[in-house]
Amino acid sequence: MPHSVAVIGGGIGGLTAAHELIERGFDVTVYEAGDRFGGKARSMPVTEGPAAGADPLHCEHGFRFFPAFYEHLPETMARIPFEPTGGTVADNLVSTSETLVAAADGSCEQRRTAELDEQSWWEFVDATERSSAFRRRIATITQALVALRPRRASARTMGTIYLQLLLGQLDPTEPTEHILNGPTSTVWIDPWIESLAEQGVDFRTGAAASDLRLGRRGRRIDAAIIDGEPVDADDYVLAVPAEVAPDVLSERAKRADPQLARIERLDTAWMNGIQFYLSEDLPLVAGHQVYTDSAWALTAISQRQFWNDEVFDVGARGDPAVEGVLSVIVSDWSTPGSRVAKPARECTPEEIKTEVLAQLGDHLNREGERLSEDLIHDWVLDPELEPAEVGVENNAPLLINTAGSLKNRPSASTGIENLTLAADYVRTNSDLASMESANEAGRRAANDVLERSGVRAAPATVYELTEPGVFDPLKLHDRMRYRLGRPHQGDAIRRLLPSGPTGRPAD
């Protein structure tokens, strides 16, 4: 009989593990607590209002984007057939050419791991001593990326990802970033599920895990308890979010492998979206929009211009009056708004909508009205946000890479013989909590299962991040200094300057 694997969690990490394992002859079942696969990446049909209907428009947790440094995810997508065009879902990635930035007003690896992960991004860029413009553009951009306040963000993670984003912008041979040419589930997740099911993966929805039951010796999982019933498999891949994993892992499991106990120390934040369905298409710019002076750290994209009408025709879905889709992400849920004077998390859905439109208008309508209330035909807040006694509660927070968090992130391989992990909190080369990191974690999990099983097959490819070779001599020099216990040379230079790295006083 084929080696059986139970994948618990149907997000990007779990689906990637299932993909790699089914291609290598394993018997794979994926258990998902919700009613749709894809985790935070999925899109969902609108169920109420003008955007709904027999053939509804889609809403989403937040828009997807694929920076140039992503390698794992595009390679997986290139192996997923897309029947409407006869190609693959990778063909549904389209490049952007612009970014709207709107305003209303060389360390070695050892040092990065040991020192920079313990330092905040705010400290690393010396933001306190820099101008307010610098703080808005450089220091606080972490919130636009990962809903993470710069005073808490890991300098190691943010520096690494900044470099990768910069390389993508400077390389003339590759697009800076890609986005999808339709709603995520339509052009990626659903075809992925269909392809894996055709290959033999068994998918179960509404299947929530409550425990991974250890055997008497405490070295192996005897069964996963899913919907109150035991599920037996040769191997188990845990692919649930960081805030869910501690509830599934028993105290015995955490004692068997202490790294599992540290998962609960990881932090999450809110980064959720709202979609506006417009009576008139509003392209604004051929790419993403960053609203640098918005109290709620807004980013957005006008999607209709990128969507393929042959795959997903906005005009033929929901209410025919809908001509455009503006997808907005709110990354700061703790700062009072400019109109409602409350943090987003304390607002009603209606108040969130009103405040987001006001903040967008402050940026877009400075030289004439571009976005007005009259254009809003319908709107949908991320369904993972539910009304609460005060404001809303979030059922899908985002893992954040805080300073010092690396030591709490486990490897894909665990100290339990038949348990491996596949989620964005796993240690990966991609590092930042993202679809790319989850995909890499899924590959690492599949390789761990493959190695233990004795099945003869090539392992899934795991890519290294690429950095400019021109910095290699500097990194080698710093590696020698680090081994000798000496600080980075930049630290010495910093101390000689009157006010931070540029010598320019803050305003």
Compact overview of the structure:
The chain is of the alpha+beta class. Helix content is about 30%, strand content about 20%. It is built from 15 helices and 25 strands.
Helix content: 25-40%
- Oligomerization status of the protein chains: single chain
Show unreliable segments.
496-507
Which overall shape is indicated by the principal axes computed on the Cα atoms?
globular
What does this protein look like?
By secondary structure, the chain is of the alpha+beta class. It is built from 15 helices and 25 strands. It folds into 3 domains: 4-35 and 205-265 and 406-453, FAD/NAD(P)-binding domain, CATH 3.50.50.60; 45-96 and 175-183 and 271-394; 99-174 and 468-496, no CATH class. A hairpin with a 2-residue loop joins strand 13 (221-226) and strand 14 (229-231). The strands form 8 sheets. A 6-stranded mixed beta sheet has the order 9-18-19-20-17-21, covered by helices on one side. It has a 5-stranded parallel beta sheet with strand order 11-2-1-15-25, covered by helices on one side. A 3-stranded antiparallel beta sheet has the order 5-10-8. The protein starts with a strand and ends in an 11-residue tail after the last helix. Helix 1 (12-22) runs parallel beside helix 8 and helix 1 runs parallel beside helix 13 (435-453).
Summarize the SSE layout with pairings.
Blueprint: E1 4-8, H1 12-22, E2 27-31, E3 43-45, E4 58-60, E5 66-67, H2 72-77, E6 81-82, E7 87-88, E8 93-95, E9 98-102, H3 109-114, H4 121-124, H5 132-139, H6 141-146, H7 155-170, E10 177-180, H8 184-199, E11 202-204, E12 209-214, E13 221-226, E14 229-231, E15 235-238, H9 245-248, H10 251-256, H11 258-261, E16 267-269, E17 272-278, E18 287-291, E19 298-302, E20 324-330, H12 349-364, E21 376-381, E22 385-387, E23 392-394, E24 398-400, E25 419-421, H13 435-453, H14 472-483, H15 489-496
Parallel strand pairs: 1-2, 1-15, 2-11, 9-18, 15-25
Antiparallel strand pairs: 3-4, 5-10, 6-7, 8-10, 12-13, 13-14, 16-24, 17-20, 17-21, 18-19, 19-20, 22-23
Helix pairs in contact: 1-8, 1-13
